Amino acid sequence: MPNENNSNGPPQPNPVLTAYEGYVRDTPLLTRYILNSLLLSYLLSFFANPAYALANIPLFTIFKFELYRIFTSPLVCADILSLIFAFMGFMNHGIKLEQSVGSCMFGVLFFTLTVASNVLFLLVSVLLWGLTNSESYLVGASMGIWSVLLAIIAVECSQAPPDTKRKLFFLTVPTLYYPLVLLALFSMFAGVKLAYCLGVAVGYAYGYGKLDRLKVKVERVSLQWSDLQICYCPCLFDSVLIKIICYSSLQSYRQFNLQSTNEQSTHDVQSSSGEEMGGRMPTRLRRKNGLD
């Protein structure tokens, strides 16, 4: 006999769905889309390495004119460790910064630092290739979220009060030197990476006003998501994506039905032609072919 308390009580909430709803509720729009893109890139790495198509590699970006790599390189994630550290770092710094400056300004800052650090990476790589004649600089890759995230942290720390400090594990570090300590920590475990070093340099330069020409005025991005009704973009994007998937499935189903119909028609025509030819064949040939 079933338990009355279990049958009359409310159903238990799905923990996965509850965690996802909390993630959507507490994570701003742009940060959530960036993290979702990293997760999608990691899932795609089981079938093909996304770095070959999206990473900023001078040989492809410059000499094959694949300029889109300048914008897509931060969204590459090919291993689980990078994904975990990306979520840990971006959930801490990205959420706070986007909530403080808004999604529009955070998006402008993110893509400005991405373009500046990637262009500088291309220039330094080509210069080193010209000086050393080593093609290893042309196939070096700038990819992953940490090159941009280090630049964002450098911007934030360069504008902080000089006497403030931050805690990194068990160390207490002055806020101004916090990005350099992070860079030294990454270099200690993963080796020195040119993209990370240039990302920190671009972040400090942006924070100290050396890249004011790249800054967009606040008036140009003062229109908020609500003014442009972009708050409906997630639902609109999801509905458009669902429509595209349904349309593609419908087209594939129609094409499959059309192919099946054509094959059936061809088979019927061949069968009818064989019967007609069989009716016209002489009796001896028909007996030989087993038609009678």
State mean pLDDT (0 to 100 scale).
76
What spatial order of strands do you see in the largest sheet?
1-2
Category from helices, strands and their pairing:
mainly alpha
Ranges where pLDDT stays below 50 over 5 or more residues in a row are 221-250, 275-282, 284-292
Largest sheet: 2 strands, antiparallel
Estimate the global geometry from the Cα principal axes.
Answer: globular
Order of helices and strands: HHHHHHHHHEEHHHH
Helix content: 55-70%
Could you tell me how far the N terminus lies from the C terminus, measured between alpha carbons in angstroms?
Answer: 69 Å
Strand content: under 5%
User: What is the CA-atom radius of gyration, in angstroms?
Assistant: 30 Å
Question: Using DSSP, what is the number of strands?
Answer: 2
Number of helices: 13
Give the topology, please.
Layout: H1 4-8, H2 15-26, H3 29-44, H4 51-54, H5 58-61, H6 69-72, H7 80-101, H8 103-132, H9 146-158, E1 165-168, E2 171-174, H10 178-190, H11 194-207, H12 233-280, H13 283-288
Antiparallel strand pairs: 1-2
Helix pairs in contact: 3-7, 7-8, 7-9, 8-9, 8-11, 9-10, 9-11
Protein architecture, described:
There is one protein chain. The protein has about 290 residues and is mostly helical. It contains 13 helices and two strands. The chain has helices at about 5-10, 15-25, 30-45, 50-55, 60, 70, 80-100, 105-130, 145-160, 180-190, 195-205, 235-280, 285-290; strands spanning about 165-170, 170-175. It has a two-stranded antiparallel ribbon. Strand 1 (about 165-170) and strand 2 (about 170-175) form a beta hairpin. Helix 7 (about 80-100) packs across helix 8 (about 105-130), helix 7 packs parallel to helix 9 and helix 9 (about 145-160) runs parallel beside helix 11. It is globular and about 75 Å long. The N and C termini lie far apart (about 70 Å).
